[in-house]
Amino acid sequence: MDRTFPQFATGAPRPVPAPNVAHARFSIGDVVQHKLFGFRGVVFDIDPVFANSDEWYEAIPEEMRPAKDQPFYHLLAENSEGSYIAYVSQQNLVVDDSDEPVEHPAIAGLFGGYQDGKYALRPLYRH
C-alpha cells in the first residue's frame, strides 16, 4: 500500500511519506496488566503515539524508557496500595487473564458491565 500524501507547496506536488504508526493491541474497556510492575487497569483512552510531557518521559530511567512511536494507554489502574491513573506504553502491557474486575472508583462513571475481561463503555461516551 502506497502511504504518501501530496505536498501542498507551490509548483508540482511531490509525494511525502506518511509516518508509520503502530496499531493499538488493546481497546477501550480492556483489562490489562503491566509487564514489569504487575498493576492492573482498564483502558479508558489511547494515544497513537506518546503524548505526555517531556518531563514525564525524562523521569523514566533511560534503560527502561519506552519508544515514543507506539500507542500509549490511559488506564484506571489499581495496585495493593490503591487506585490511580496510569499512562503506559503498549510494549509494557499484556492482557490481564485473571478474569477479575478492577476496583477503581471511576469505572462506574465511564463503564457499565464487566464480562470476559472487558468493560462495556456507557452509551453516553461512545462516538
UniProtKB/TrEMBL annotation:
<dbReference type="GO" id="GO:0003677">
    <property type="term" value="F:DNA binding"/>
</dbReference>
<keyword id="KW-0346">Stress response</keyword>
<dbReference type="InterPro" id="IPR036623">
    <property type="entry name" value="Hemimethylated_DNA-bd_sf"/>
</dbReference>
<dbReference type="InterPro" id="IPR053189">
    <property type="entry name" value="Clp_protease_adapter_ClpF"/>
</dbReference>
<feature type="domain" description="Hemimethylated DNA-binding">
    <location>
        <begin position="23"/>
        <end position="122"/>
    </location>
</feature>
<protein>
    <recommendedName>
        <fullName>Heat shock protein HspQ</fullName>
    </recommendedName>
</protein>
<dbReference type="InterPro" id="IPR011722">
    <property type="entry name" value="Hemimethylated_DNA-bd_dom"/>
</dbReference>
<dbReference type="Pfam" id="PF08755">
    <property type="entry name" value="YccV-like"/>
</dbReference>
